[in-house]
Design goal:
The structure holds two protein chains of two kinds.
Chain A (H helix, E strand, L loop, with lengths): L3 H24 L7 H19 L1 H7 L4 H20 L10 E6 L3 E6 L1 H25 L2
Antiparallel strand pairs in A: 1-2
Chain B lengths: L7 H18 L4 H29 L2 E5 L7 E5 L1 H24 L2 H5 L2 H17 L3 H19 L10 H33 L4 H13 L6 H16 L9 H4 L5 H11 L1 H13 L5 H24 L4 H22 L2 H32 L15 H15 L6 H14 L3 H26 L19 H19 L2 H15 L2 H8 L5
Antiparallel strand pairs in B: 1-2
Helix pairs in contact in B: 1-2, 1-5, 2-3, 3-5, 3-11, 3-15, 3-19, 5-6, 6-7, 6-11, 7-9, 8-21, 9-12, 11-15, 12-14, 13-14, 13-18, 14-15, 14-17, 14-18, 15-16, 15-17, 15-19, 15-20, 16-18, 16-19, 17-18
The chains are: A mainly alpha, B mainly alpha.
Chain lengths: ~140, ~525
C-alpha cells in the first residue's frame, strides 16, 4: 500500500478525520455523535497511517502504547461516575455549568463529556492495541 | 457519604473496573500489584458481606445509576444477588491469593490482573443488576475477560498453547451464538412489553396473564432464555464445550470458571424465569428435570472414563450442575432451598478442588493420572485438601456436600419426584466412585516417579497457596458442621423467588427524583 498517492492522500486526510472525530465527540451528549463513534473514527484514521506507512515506520517515528490509552479512558469514565458520589449524588449523575466567555459566547459544560472522553479513549486504545498486536505479526 | 450503604452495589462494580485500569498502567510492578490486588479483593469481600447483612436486616436495596428517574438503569441487591456476590467475592479472593504464587511471572506482568478485575466486575454486575439488558452487557464483559484469562499460563499447567487457542475459539464462538440468542430474546421481550426493567417486565407479563391475553411467544422467549442460561450452566445437550474449555485454563481461572461462571446460568434461571416467566414454568419444569437428569448421567459417566485429572473434574462439574438444575426444576420452596445450598457448596468445594488440582499437577509434572501415585508421602497437605474436596462433592459428612445432597433428595421425596431422585441417587454413587478412585490413584499406592525424575520433592505449595486452600477447606467444613445459617438464608431466598412481590414493590415503588 506504500504508493506515493496513498501516502500523500492519507497525510491530508488523517488530520481532517481526527478533527471530525473530536467534533463528533464534543457533540455527543446532545447531538448525534458520541465517544464511541468518535473513537472508532480516530482509530480508523490512525490505522490508515499504519496500513499506508507500515507499523515499523510509524513505530520508529513515535512509539505509542495504546493499551495505556485504554486504561486512562476506563479510569476517566469510572472516576466521572465516582466523582459525583463525593457530592452526595448517585453514581454517574450528570451536572452542568453554563459559563459565558469573552469572544466565544455562552458554553455549557456537562460532566457527561468526561465520561464520553473516557469512552473515546477506551475505544481508541482497544481497537488500535488489537490492530497493532495483530499487525506486528510476532 | 461515599461509603454509606446505599452506594455499595455500585462500588462493588466500579471498584474492580477502576482497579483493573490502574493495573494496566502499572503492569510491570507485579510485587506491588499482588499486595494491592489482595487488599482490594479483601475489601470487596468485606463490602459484599456488609451488603448481605444490610439486605438481610433492612430489606432490598435499590440503587439508581445516574438518577435518571423513571427510565433509569437500576442496581437491585436482594438476598439472592447479594448472597451470590458474597460467594463470588470469597472465591475470587481465594483464587487471587492462590494465583499470586501460581501464575507465571509473564502472565502476572501482562494481562492477568486487569482481566481478573474486569471478570469480577462482570460477575458482580450480573448478580446486582435489575435491568435485563445490563445483564446482557455484563455477560459480555464476563465472556471477553475470561477468554483472555484462559490463554495465560501457570506453573502446573501442562496444556499446549495450541490447545488453549482452540479452546478459546470454541468458547468465544459458542458464547457469541448464545449471547446473540439472548439479545434476540431480550429484543422480543422488549417488543412485547416495552420495558427492560425486570420487575416492570414481571408486572406487565403478569397483567397480560391475568387478562388471559398472554401471547404465545412469551413461552418461546422463556425457552430461548433456558437455552442461553443452560448454555452458560453447561446443561445437557449444551455441555460439550465445558470439558474442552475449562481444563485449558490455569488453575485459579479454572476455579473461577467452574466455581462461579457456570453458576451464572443457574442464577439467570432463578432470577429471570422465577421472576418474569412464572407463567411458563409449568411447561419448563418437566423439561428442566429431564435435562438435569441427563446432565447428571452424562457428566458422571464421562468422568469415569477420564485419565486427565482436569477433564475428569470438569465432567464432574457438569454432573454436579445437574443436581442444582434438578432442584431448580422441581420448583418447590424446599427444592429451591436445596438447590441454592447445593450451588453454594459446589462453588466453594469445586473451586477448592480445582486449586488443589493445579498444585497437584505441578507436583506431579504431568496431567495423566496413570503416571501419578503415592504422593501422600511427598505432599500430605494436598492429600488432605483433595480428600476434603472429594468428600464434599461426593456428599460425605462432615463436609458441606452432605447437607446439600441430603436436602436435594429430601426435597425431591417430599415433592414426590420418586423416579428422578432414584436416578440422581444412582449417579451420586458414581460420583463417590470416580472421586475416590482418583484420590486413591493419586495419593495412595506405589510411589511413582515424577517427570523429571525425583523433582517432586522440591515442587511443594508455597505459603499463600496453603493459606488460600486452608481457608476454603475451613469454609467447606464449617458449612458441613454448622449449616443452619446457610439453610435459613437459602430458604428465605427461595421464598422470595417464589413470591417476588417484595422485589417488584421495592423496585417500582421507590421514590424517583
Amino acid at each position: 500500500m506504500t504508493t506515493l498517492i496513498a501516502k500523500t492522500v492519507s497525510k491530508v486526510c488523517v488530520p481532517i478525520i481526527i478533527l471530525f472525530s473530536i467534533s463528533l465527540l464534543l457533540a455527543g451528549h446532545d447531538n448525534p455523535g458520541g465517544g464511541f463513534i468518535g473513537g472508532v473514527m480516530f482509530a480508523s484514521a490512525i490505522s490508515l497511517f499504519y496500513v499506508v506507512f507500515g507499523v515499523d515506520h510509524i513505530e520508529s517515528i513515535y512509539k505509542n502504547h495504546w493499551d495505556k490509552w485504554f486504561a486512562v479512558g476506563l479510569l476517566l469514565a469510572t472516576i466521572t461516575g465516582i466523582g459525583i458520589m463525593l457530592l452526595g449524588y448517585n453514581f454517574l449523575r450528570s451536572a452542568y455549568v453554563s459559563a459565558t466567555f469573552p469572544l466565544i459566547g455562552e458554553i455549557s459544560i456537562i460532566s457527561t463529556i468526561f465520561f464520553d472522553i473516557g469512552v473515546y479513549l477506551v475505544v481508541i486504545g482497544g481497537i488500535l492495541h488489537i490492530f497493532k498486536e495483530m499487525g506486528e505479526d510476532k | 457519604m461515599i461509603l454509606s450503604m446505599q452506594h455499595v452495589p455500585v462500588i462493588l462494580i466500579a471498584l474492580p473496573i477502576i482497579f483493573g485500569s490502574l493495573t494496566i498502567l502499572f503492569r510491570s510492578k507485579s510485587t506491588l500489584q499482588k499486595t494491592l490486588n489482595i487488599a482490594v479483593f479483601s475489601f470487596l469481600l468485606a463490602l459484599s458481606i456488609a451488603l448481605l447483612l444490610h439486605v438481610w436486616y433492612n430489606g432490598i436495596l435499590v440503587y439508581e445509576v445516574g438518577e435518571w428517574g423513571k427510565y433509569g438503569i437500576l442496581l437491585v441487591a436482594d438476598l439472592l444477588g447479594a448472597g451470590m456476590v458474597v460467594l463470588s467475592s470469597l472465591i475470587s479472593l481465594m483464587a487471587m491469593i492462590y494465583a499470586t504464587d501460581y501464575m507465571d511471572r509473564k502472565a502476572l506482568d501482562s494481562t492477568f490482573f486487569p482481566l481478573f478485575n474486569l471478570m469480577v466486575a462482570g460477575l458482580n454486575g450480573i448478580f446486582l443488576t435489575g435491568d435485563i439488558f445490563n445483564l446482557f452487557v455484563f455477560f459480555e464483559v464476563l465472556v471477553l475477560s475470561s477468554c483472555g484469562l484462559i490463554v495465560l499460563t501457570g506453573r502446573g499447567d501442562h496444556t499446549k498453547m495450541a490447545d488453549k487457542l482452540e479452546a478459546i475459539f470454541k468458547y468465544l464462538v459458542l458464547n457469541m451464538v448464545s449471547i446473540i440468542l439472548m439479545l434476540v430474546s431480550i429484543a422480543s421481550l422488549y417488543a412485547t412489553v416495552g420495558t427492560l426493567n425486570m420487575a416492570d417486565i414481571a408486572v406487565k407479563v403478569g397483567y397480560l396473564a391475568d387478562a388471559g391475553e398472554l401471547p404465545w411467544h412469551i413461552h418461546v422467549i422463556a425457552m430461548t432464555f433456558i437455552v442461553v442460561f443452560g448454555y452458560k450452566a453447561a446443561m445437557f445437550p449444551l455441555h460439550f464445550w465445558l470439558a474442552d474449555v475449562h481444563p485449558s485454563a490455569p488453575a485459579p481461572i479454572h476455579a473461577m470458571l467452574s466455581g462461579m461462571v457456570i453458576k451464572v446460568g443457574i442464577y439467570g434461571i432463578l432470577r429471570v424465569h422465577y421472576l418474569i416467566f412464572s407463567e411458563s414454568m409449568f411447561m419448563l419444569q418437566p423439561i428442566l428435570i429431564i435435562l438435569s437428569l441427563v446432565t447428571i448421567a452424562v457428566g458422571a459417566t464421562s468422568a469415569i472414563g477420564q485419565y486427565d485429572l482436569k477433564r475428569l473434574l470438569a465432567y464432574s462439574s457438569v454432573s454436579q450442575i445437574g443436581y442444582v438444575l434438578l432442584g431448580v426444576g422441581m420448583g418447590t420452596a424446599y427444592a429451591l432451598t436445596a438447590a441454592i445450598v447445593y450451588l453454594v457448596n459446589h462453588a466453594i468445594a469445586k473451586s477448592m478442588l480445582f486449586l488443589t488440582t493445579g498444585e497437584t499437577l505441578y507436583h506431579a509434572g504431568t496431567k495423566d493420572m496413570r503416571k501419578m501415585g503415592g504422593y501422600a508421602g511427598s505432599a500430605p497437605f494436598l492429600c488432605i485438601i483433595f480428600l476434603i474436596g472429594s468428600m464434599s462433592i461426593a456428599g460425605l459428612p462432615p463436609a458441606g456436600g452432605f447437607f446439600a445432597k441430603l436436602l436435594i433428595f429430601d426435597a425431591g421425596l417430599s415433592a414426590q419426584f420418586y423416579i428422578p431422585i432414584a436416578i440422581a441417587l444412582i449417579f451420586a454413587i458414581f460420583t463417590l466412585f470416580y472421586l475416590f478412585r482418583t484420590w486413591l490413584t493419586i495419593f495412595w499406592g506405589e510411589v511413582k516417579y515424577c517427570d523429571p525424575t525425583e523433582a517432586c520433592n522440591i515442587r511443594n505449595p508455597t505459603t499463600s497457596i496453603k493459606v488460600a486452600l486452608s481457608l476454603l477447606a475451613g469454609v467447606v467444613i464449617f458449612i458441613g458442621v454448622y449449616p443452619e445459617p446457610l439453610i435459613a438464608l437459602s430458604s428465605v431466598i427461595a421464598g422470595q423467588l417464589l413470591d417476588p412481590q417484595p422485589y417488584i414493590t421495592a423496585v417500582l415503588e421507590r421514590s424517583v427524583r
